[in-house]
Amino acid sequence: TATVALSLARPDANAVIRFTTNNTAVTATSAVYARPLVFSTAVHVRARAFSPGVLPGAATSATYTPLMASMTQLRSDLPLLLLHNYGRGRPSTTGVFGTLHVFEPTNGWATLTNMPVVSGPVRMASRGSSTEGLAKVSLKVEFQDEAGLDLDVPLLGMPADSDWVLYAPNVFDPIMTHNPLMHDLYRALGWYSSRTRFVEVYLVTSGTGPVATTTYNGIYVLEEKIKRGKDRVDVDKLEPEHVAEPEVTGGYLFKVDRPDPGDSGFGVRGQTLMYVEPSEPEIEQPARAAQRAYVNRFFAQFTGALYGNNWRDPALGYTQYFDVAQSIDFHLLNTVAFNVDALVLSTYLYKPRGGKLTFGPLWDFDRALGSTDGRDNNPKVWGANYFSAYWWSRLFSDPDFTQRWIDRYEELRLGLLATTNLHARMDALAAQLRLAQPRERTKWGTVYRGGTYASELVYSKNWLSNRVAFMDAQFVPRPVPAANPPSVVPGRTSLALQRPANTNWVIYYTTNGLDPRAIGGGIRPEALLYPAEGAPEFESNVRVRARIYSRALRSGTPNSRWGGPWESVLVARRPALRFSEVHYHPAGDGDGEFVEVLNPGPDPVPMAGWVLSGGVRMTFSATNGPAVLPPGGRVVLVRDDAPAGIVPGGSAGGGRYAGRVCN
Questions:
Q1: Whole-number pLDDT of residue 645
Q2: Helices 178-188 & 419-432 angle (0-180, nearest 10)
Q3: Is the Cβ–Cβ distance between 441 and 451 less than 8 Å?
Q4: What pLDDT is recorded for position 662?
Q5: Beta partners for 106?
Q6: For residue 614, what pLDDT is reported?
Q7: To 5 degrees, how large is the angle CA 369–CA 363–CA 330?
Q8: Is 425 helix (H, G, I), strand (E, B) or coil?
Q9: Long-range contacts of range 344-347, CB-CB < 8 Å, 24 or more positions apart?
Q10: pLDDT tens digit string along 376-426?
Q11: Among residues 121, 108, 122, 119, which one has the least CA distance to residue 79?
């Protein structure tokens, strides 16, 4: 049993405390507290003080949950979540009242007998479309204050918000790491994607007696719900009064998905989009008519540019409305994962104020990465939708868009999407589940390919290795430096690249930093053909950019005659530039700080393109710094906000930098 005593925060002889235990609001007619309350069942107590002639005090509440003796022995190296809805049954799609206790590991272990780090009322609802009816139910959880309004709560190291998702890894995702892996990869690219934590959940939906071990519901992935917010999709909030530019231009959050109850969405050249924020009921209000009109006008302009005669023109075409870089990253990760629902379901887009339409964030990867769905079973086929769904077919008919997609993929394969990196991330996620995974299997009878969780991990890693190997084989590769470059005499340098094994492939390069591939896919006129024998040599420093070109164009989409670019600065002579003086702490307000650069060598040094980075930032150019620093020459650089006339003398024109030498 639990004994609960209530008291006033400060003395008031006329005040009475009233309370409820049925999760209803406390009113002036609720029961009066007269003596300590004794409970032997789970209960959520609400209390409030009333005194004649003044407003009622603030409402407060607390939850008391009895545990069976066996529950006190439980421990986990993952956070534990205890959800209780006081006999309201399985949560519905519309939601029911409940409470949530969160227990963070202390000294490596979480137990249900420690003090929770978060405890309070929530509204819990089932979620999912085709998976909503599964026995292991996914949940959406909304924290509420005493008035039933949204309450932002920081959760397990993630920024405060009221709305959270408890994704239940299901039969399609036996390894349970699909969503955390893909969200992690997208965040590593610099874009927002939901933060995640593995947790173990106890879900009590029947009765109010002591909580038993049978309420264990397995491993869940706690995820941030996709919504507008400074720590989520960071776009401006649209208010009803935002009816003119620039405010009316954003921010909007849309999705391509099945409609929510009562929603119908809006059509964009054969594709139906759903409003997320503002929601459809909100934006259908008469006060927001200008916002609906703007959305319709924007998409008409975007699709008009995308399908118009000048659609590939940088100034007139689709790129003035569409964020190409982030949308390519979004598309690439869905393609790498073979997400069978990608682009046609669970696909989000947003439109920032004054910004371009952008695909993202990522969402929903249970049927991906070699899941048991079946449609993604073979990693060595592209799969449906990726290059044909609505606008994407038009985008991939632009050879420059296609090349950017290929270039980005081949760039990421050198780092983030390198097979070793992908496997290391999968291993790290699986390691977090090592102790909890047997409990999940006991609860739900999970079937692993190969018989064990370890064999399932091996299967998943092999699938992903085969996936990226298949994608690699679809494209002309990037150039690779020669393993044993030829020796050159001092003062000379050489461009030593491995010659392609495919006889249809040749290398083109430039020495001015320009792309050997011309816009549209042709060969730039000044591009040079890499010789069949020997390596080109240079007596001066050159910025080289090279690509492999295929004389034969394979069929299929996406395709290109060109592989990704390889770039390098080849140094024949290292310029003898030195920092000769740094005045880092001048008297007064610091206006007099400066950096002096000296050329002590025998040759003049062209300065255009040289960069200073770190505490000070500057790029030498035609308008900032000298064009050439002669032998023995010096240039004095000052802060960009330094007053005129304070620059010390130097033998060359000065320059200005951003930042400070000493903060």
A1: 64
A2: 130
A3: no
A4: 73
A5: 109
A6: 86
A7: 80
A8: helix
A9: 344/256, 344/385, 344/389, 345/129, 345/256, 345/257, 345/258, 346/255, 346/257, 347/255, 347/256, 347/257
A10: 999 999 987 899 999 999 999 999 999 999 999 999 999 999 999 999 999
A11: 108
